[in-house]
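Re-run requested by the PI after the first attempt was lost when the workstation crashed. Everything re-entered from the original request form. Ligand of interest: adenosine monophosphate.
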Amino acid sequence: MLNKKSVKDIDVAGKKVLVRCDFNVPLNENKEITDENRINGAMPTINYLVEAGAKVILCSHLGRPKGEFNMKYSLAPVAKRLSEILGKEVKMAEDVIGDSAKALAADLKDGDVILLENVRFHKEEEKNDPEFSKALASLAEIYVNDAFGTAHRAHASTAGVADYLPAVCGFLIQKEIEIMGKALSNPDRPFTAILGGAKVSDKIGVIENLLEKVDSLVIGGGMAYTFLKAQGHSIGTSICEEEKLDLARDLMKKAEEKGVNLLLPHSSVVATEYSKDAEHKEVLSEDIPDGWMGLDIGQSTIDLFSEEVKKAKTIIWNGPMGVFEFPAFAKGTTEVARAVASADATTIIGGGDSAAAVIQLGYGDKMTHISTGGGASLEFLEGLELPGIACLEDK
Ligand code: AMP
């Protein structure tokens, strides 16, 4: 299990601390934040540092400004919101490593907080340019990474800067690696993973790694049809990755060899076309008629998957069970979310679509952990080393 130093393992009082957060929040046309989950996720670390008397320098990216200053992607709305939450002004720098940032950083008193402009206003950020990392590091004495959502990227502010400063994690990253790390290294059993979403190709690494660890692997969503076809079933016009059929067969063989109980959709809700109003009906997945495509799991599959979930003591879920964006094909995802929420188990939701679905359905606080990183949680579950975590000091 990863054992990284956190903000609690280092003396921060009176020190300038550069904190990489994930403030990549959605904004509406009036530059109002429409979902502040990511800001809330960063608050425990920020509050701790403020109370400990650190001089806090926050930084983040927002959107994809492609290496150029573009006020459309300014972090100013985040500074405004942080000021409201903290009850004191969070000054916003006009730049990232320029005169404004340097002046504000130099002026910091213990317990003060400032926010730098969007780190992706510099193309050097995503290139992990050493000079840029060094300039960023020169603003502070300690580096804290708390941006799990970008921890799978080796960028200047997520990894490079750790070459020049003592580097530790914040509470958000700590929680992510503790909970997911325990599930992967020492899970309470039975351990069930539920995978869904559109494509097998996005999740090959995750399936391979989880097959070494889980007792049951439940596969739904579009990716299930590649497996069903590989078993020789007719899948109509369901989404299928022809070039992954052999791989699907290998994975099913591996599951059998490892004694992993692999569950696929027994029944499907099929439609005549990919649209929200498409004519639809429920059929056995092994017998999808020509011209029909599977867009959700059927009722007997919901029952089968829910039973499996009920037995589990550790559950990891990533990817919807169907095209949940269309209400007619959302039931599988909704019902699996309900089953996971009521399971007497450690329940971990990978980021991305399944996290959004769970929160939207109001099951957010019923889960042990909802990861704040889609890509990052997938790479973590693949067993890959994340650069934004690897760069931090070991305990
Ligand atoms: P991913 O990003 O790989 O987790 O995939 C999420 C997407 O998979 C969602 O937009 C779903 O609409 C889509 N999806 C889930 N089930 C199906 C399906 N049976 N056919 C086509 N797309 C699907």
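Saved to the shared folder this time. The radius of gyration is 23 Å.
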